[in-house]
Amino acid sequence: MPTLDICFSPELLPLFDLRGRVAVVVDVLRATSSIVTALAQGVTHMVPVSEVAACQAMAADGYLTAAERDGRQALGVDLGNSPFGYLDGVVAVRGRAVAITTTNGTRALHLSQAADAVVVGAFLNLGAVANFLRQQQKDVIVVCAGWKGNFCLEDTLFGGALANELASEFTTTDSDATLAALDLWQAARPDVAGYLLKSSHVRRLNSLELHKDMEFCVRQDVYDVVPVYQEGRIT
Ligand code: 3SL
Predict the structure, then answer these.
(1) Lower Cβ count inside 10 Å, N or C end of the chain?
(2) pLDDT for residue 216
(3) How many domains does the chain fold into?
(4) Residue 133 to residue 110: CA distance in whole angstroms
């Protein structure tokens, strides 16, 4: 049976051999939730880049630009990092390509590239990701984007929810990380939004008046898309 392991922070990735595994990169708040929403709304592809300046420069090639630092939209770009940016109609996104940079999520994507496949996970597409992994039949590593190298609750909860979903088809008992995430998921699942109120990132988002983003990002199975990151593009 393939195994499912969880890497709690990109800083821990050097401890894992990604070859032979599918990496599920998750930044529930909010990068991967926004990417899933963007592709579900008809964005053709996204290019994750490291720096805001590199993102801004891609406007010259016809890209929409999305950039966030410390939770706020960067200056001189079309979109921030809210999934509502792809839903509210203020910027027409259907049929467009988007260059994106965020504090943690795009970094986690870049650092996961050694995996056999890199997919973008969020609660919004949890079931679709689980189905994709069932089809692949390969070992899985959930890469939590965390916050500036630190552990964070929301990405770990996603890892626990995915492990719970796949528990009868994947080995989820070999790693303490997965066991811990499963326990956290059992504690949080009756009220994920309520559970996350104590988390550092929700407190950060609330201070920016972005509570509605968190409520949206913890919804499960809203979208059926499984974005794949390959050769520099998310499609
Ligand atoms: O760190 C990131 O990649 C972002 O998702 C953080 S925020 O939710 O936009 O603040």
Answers:
(1) N
(2) 97
(3) 1
(4) 20
For atom 9 of ligand 1, the residue with the nearest CA is 71
Domain containing 202 equals: 4-234
Outline where 146-228 has alpha helix (H): 153-166, 176-188, 192-196, 200-207, 211-217
Q: How confident is the model at residue 48 (pLDDT cuts 50, 70, 90)?
A: very high
Token digits for 139? 């070992």
Mean pLDDT of the chain, nearest integer:
97
Q: Is 154 in the pocket of ligand 1 (CB under 6 A)?
A: no
- Asked whether 9 lines ligand 1 (CB < 6 A), one says no
Q: Which residues pair with 69 in a beta bridge?
A: 72
CATH number at residue 186: 3.90.1560.10
User: Which of 100, 102, 214 has the most ligand 1 atoms within 8 A of CB, as the residue to mutate?
Assistant: 102
Taking only the tens place, the pLDDT of each residue in 77-135 is: 999 999 999 999 999 999 999 999 999 999 999 999 999 999 999 999 999 999 999 99
Q: Give the pLDDT of residue 179.
A: 98
